[in-house]
Structures are given as C-alpha cells and as structure tokens.
Specification:
Oligomer: single chain
Strand content: 15-25%
Number of helices: 1
Radius of gyration: 13 Å
Number of strands: 2
Largest sheet: 2 strands, antiparallel
Helix content: 40-55%
C-alpha cells in the first residue's frame, strides 16, 4: 500500500480498491441491507 503524507490517506491500487468494495458489499448483505 502507498501512503500519501500530504493528506494522510492510504492510496489503494485498483485491485485493492475492488477487493475492499467487494468486502464492504458482503458485509452489508450479511446485515440484510442489499443496495446496488
């Protein structure tokens, strides 16, 4: 992971971003919240 010291934000690669989105979506589904 890259770290941007100016903003203090981690910069995700495209693959990491896609994986994070998929993980969050699965968490929402587990909670019974299904949104596109």
């Amino acid at each position: 992971r890259f770290f941007n010291p100016q903003t203090g934000q981690r910069l995700l690669s495209h693959e990491e971003a896609e994986a994070e989105i998929a993980r969050l979506k699965s968490l929402l589904k587990q909670q019974g919240i299904d949104s596109d």
